[in-house]
Design a protein that fits this description.
It is a single chain. By secondary structure, this protein is an all-alpha fold. It has one domain: Serine Threonine Protein Phosphatase 5, Tetratricopeptide repeat (Alpha Horseshoe), CATH 1.25.40. Helix content is about 70%, strand content about 0%. It contains twelve helices and no strands. Helix 6 crosses helix 7, helix 9 runs antiparallel to helix 10 and helix 11 packs antiparallel against helix 12.
């Protein structure tokens, strides 16, 4: 069975034609504290910018992840079980409405300037978020590959315009790592363009985002913690989670996962 692990949410470096940096930065910061209503409130006055709709969609998605206990399920930290509740249809409608508005505004900007990095980022992000919703919330793994491929294409276009746009490497990094984790035959069957399935390269890309990203370096760190633990490198995962729990003390997930891994390592050493 295909594991639903394609996390393609990406973040942006300083962008042209974006909402004021302080507003967008504050919204993403509240996203990391899992204060999802605050994200909606903060961005309410900037809805002429596609990125505002992108972060609103991310808040909706992350909130559904929390409600269904997806963060602690088998696709992420594997420290608990997913709640057997069905996806909320009202949440789904809100989520897709934000995606549609983000894409509409991004399309308009790209008609004026095909190299508009804010619009290119928004397209990358929106299709990554859709990938995650289909894969994790709806649990339709095969169907999630289509938006995953589209997100990769937008990321490639963005990096062609600006190779130093570090946050775009979140999409490429996750896809490289996850394709590398798939069996060879399955990797060929669901091939993602420009992705070879190099797990090492995938981790390197995520490290680039963690160190040089603007809006979502924290999300790259969460993924690195998950992946390093799976790669039998718990010390690196523990250090990342400790850093995150200190940076975002209001987020209950991060501190809990740090304590879980710390105790797990202590038990291993004691044996």
């Amino acid at each position: 069975m295909i594991r639903r692990k394609f996390l393609s949410v990406v973040c942006a470096a300083p962008l042209a034609h974006a909402a004021p940096a302080s507003i967008v930065d504050k919204a993403f910061a509240r996203l990391y504290e899992f204060d999802f209503p605050a994200v909606q409130q903060i961005t309410a006055a900037t809805l002429n910018d596609p990125l505002a709709h992108g972060v609103r969609a991310a808040a909706t998605l992350f909130g559904e992840f929390s409600r269904l206990n997806i963060w602690e399920g088998e696709d992420f930290f594997e420290s608990g079980k997913r709640i057997k509740a069905k996806p909320d249809p009202t949440v789904r409608a809100s989520f897709y409405q934000s995606l549609e508005q983000a894409r509409r505004l991004a399309d308009g900007a790209l008609q004026v300037n095909p190299k508009d990095v804010n619009a290119l980022f928004t397209q990358t992000m929106s299709h990554g978020l859709e990938t995650d919703y289909i894969a994790f919330v709806e649990r339709r793994s095969l169907a999630s590959f289509e938006p995953c491929k589209i997100s990769q294409r937008w990321a490639d276009k963005l990096l062609a315009v600006d190779p130093s746009f570090h946050d775009a490497y979140l999409t490429t990094g996750v896809n490289e790592y996850m394709m590398g984790a798939l069996p060879g035959v399955l990797r060929w069957a669901v091939k993602v363009e420009t992705t070879k399935g190099d797990k090492k390269k995938g981790l390197e890309h995520l490290e680039m985002v963690a160190k040089g990203g603007r809006y979502f370096p924290g999300f790259a760190k969460i993924l690195l913690a998950v992946f390093y633990e799976r790669e039998k490198q718990p010390t690196r995962a523990e250090a990342i989670l400790l850093d995150l729990s200190r940076q975002f003390p209001g987020n209950p997930l991060l501190g809990k996962q740090y304590e879980r891994l710390r105790l797990k390592m202590e038990r291993t050493i004691a044996k």
